[in-house]
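Trying the structure run again after the queue cleared.
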Amino acid sequence: MAHCNTIFHQLLHLIDRHDFRRIERNGFRPKRRYRTLDRWSQFVVMLFAQITGRSSLRDIAQQFHLRAAELYHLGVNLVKRTTLADANTKRRAKFFETLFAHQYAKCASFAPRKKFRFKNKLYSFDATTIDLCLSLFPWAAFRATKGGIKLHTLLDHDGYIPAIVQITAAKVGDLTVAKLMNLPAFSIIVMDRAYVDFAWFQKLNEKKIFFVTRMKRGIKYHVLDRGSVNGAKGLTSDQTIRLTGSRAKDCPIPLRRVGYLDEETGQHYVFLTNILHLSARTIADIYRERWQVELFFKWIKQNLKIKSFLGTSKNAVMTQIWIALIALLLLAYYKFRAKLGHSLSQILKLLQLNLFGRGNLWHLFDPGPTKHMLPNSDQLLMNFGQL
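Done. Tokens:
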């Protein structure tokens, strides 16, 4: 039998060490050389904590002491609790944010296509709040007795992976962050009613970016044209409208208003978009896809360690969150490359059981031959709903 290193060692090989060092050289070079715990070691230790769900720095240090004979192959040494705490507090979390962006680009190149036929990139945008204890995290003050931070996330529907994440104080408005995003031309962004802002919609339209959202009540408009609808598909209206009243000057372009009745729930939805070339039912289906970002938030809160933290400083919290998101992308990248039909939760659980076992990472779910290196093969989507 051919020799295989540990599963964890092979998993770490999915992150290019040359890219890691290049990012470190470009703006994150330390003033003096790290003596015992370099940045790669810090990353490996914190990634281990994410995958295995370690609850404390002491627990992490003890686990690595038990695995002392296997650390050489991981490129790390024994870690001390105080040294790790100091690294998480003082070393800029921005480095791991940069690594996250690099890992997303790498992961996206293998991600399966979305289920729609249109060629436009499809994104969902939303935010979720992570509550923090105000006495332990005073820098995260949100309300008089409550602390928290907010994860603003742009979800790429090719593979359902996070393309952009902005971490802010919980009091920062969702729309404030959304306006700062730079999206490629002709992409489609879907969001809920919290992001309705007609001046912003006008700017998106000028940049040739499409949007789909739900229409708020009370908005005044004039119907320019009425399209035919198929009631059998749940459609109730398909209108081209122009805003009237005080909002008209913010967004003078024609918009599309699509009504849809969900037969399962009996709820009636009204969507607002600047997409004119797709069918009304496709518009409704695009908004239905927005639910994937909600499933994404549910998954990361249940499976990643982002609700309890190993440090109380802002930098330590940010470091832990960014490494958690990198762990997610690493799991997704492995899933895409190995063409696995398992859910991310199933993959994570099996890796937890076999992390220091010796075997072929690519045969972990299928002991038979695999063709994970072949490009352009049929790949399965991640399903955050299968928890």
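The chain has twelve helices and ten strands. Worth checking whether this holds up in the mutant runs.
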